[in-house]
Design a protein that fits this description.
about 190 residues; globular
Length: about 190
C-alpha cells in the first residue's frame, strides 16, 4: 500500500522501497469547469539540479520539447505532452532510472505549469485533484503519493515534489509550493 505524503514530508526511498531501481513519476489533475474561455494545458517538467540547487545546463531541463536527460544512458525520460488532461489517472509521466542518474545531478525537481496561463486567465485555483505519485517500474507498485490539498488561486506554477540524494541514498520531499509567473518563475528560480 502506498504511503500518502503530507506537504513538507521527506522519506527515504531506500527505506520505503528497498531495491527500487527505477521510478515512474505520474502526475495528474482535473480542471474545474470555468468560463475562462480557453482549454487548460498543464505541463509536467523536471529540473535536474546540482548541489547548489541550480540547473546544470539548459539540456537538464526536461519537458515536452526536451524529453530525455543529456547523459548517455538517458536516465530520465518524459513520456510526452498531454494537451487536455482528460480522463482518470496519470496525465503526464516521467521515468527516472535511479541507478543511472549521473552523480552531478543532486536533485530532481518535479513541477507542473499552466501553458499560456496569463493569456488564458487561468491559475491552479481552477485545478483540482492534483497529485504526484511514485511507482516502482519493475513491480508496478505505487510506493508514494502526494495529493495537493491547498488552493493556489493566483499561482500558475507548482513545485510538486523533489527527489534528492542525501548521505548516499535517494529521498523524496513533498514540496507543494506555488509560484506566480508560470514556467518563467521556475526558470528564474533554478538558473
Amino acid at each position: 500500500m502506498a504511503i500518502s505524503l503530507q506537504k513538507g514530508q521527506r522519506v527515504s526511498l531506500d527505506k520505503v522501497a528497498p531495491g527500487l531501481n527505477a521510478a515512474f513519476i505520474g502526475l495528474g489533475w482535473d480542471v474545474n469547469t470555468t468560463d475562462t474561455g480557453g482549454d487548460f494545458d498543464l505541463d509536467a517538467s523536471v529540473f535536474l539540479l546540482n548541489s547548489n540547487e541550480k540547473l546544470i545546463s539548459d539540456q537538464h531541463f526536461i519537458f515536452y520539447n526536451n524529453l530525455t536527460s543529456p547523459d548517455p544512458e538517458k536516465s530520465i525520460k518524459h513520456m510526452g505532452d498531454n494537451l487536455t488532461g482528460e480522463g482518470d489517472g496519470d496525465d503526464e509521466v516521467i521515468i527516472v532510472d535511479l541507478r543511472k542518474v549521473p552523480t552531478d545531478v543532486n536533485r530532481i525537481a518535479i513541477t507542473v505549469t499552466i501553458y499560456d496561463a496569463d493569456k488564458r486567465k487561468q491559475n491552479f485555483g481552477q485545478v483540482r485533484n492534483a497529485f504526484v505519485r511514485l511507482v516502482n517500474v519493475e513491480t508496478k507498485e505505487e510506493v508514494l503519493r502526494y495529493d495537493l490539498e491547498e488552493d493556489f488561486s493566483t499561482e500558475t506554477a507548482l513545485i510538486m515534489a523533489e527527489i534528492y540524494r542525501k548521505d548516499g541514498e535517494w529521498r523524496m520531499n513533498a514540496v507543494g509550493a506555488g509560484y506566480q509567473g508560470g514556467l518563467q518563475a521556475l526558470l528564474n528560480r533554478y538558473q
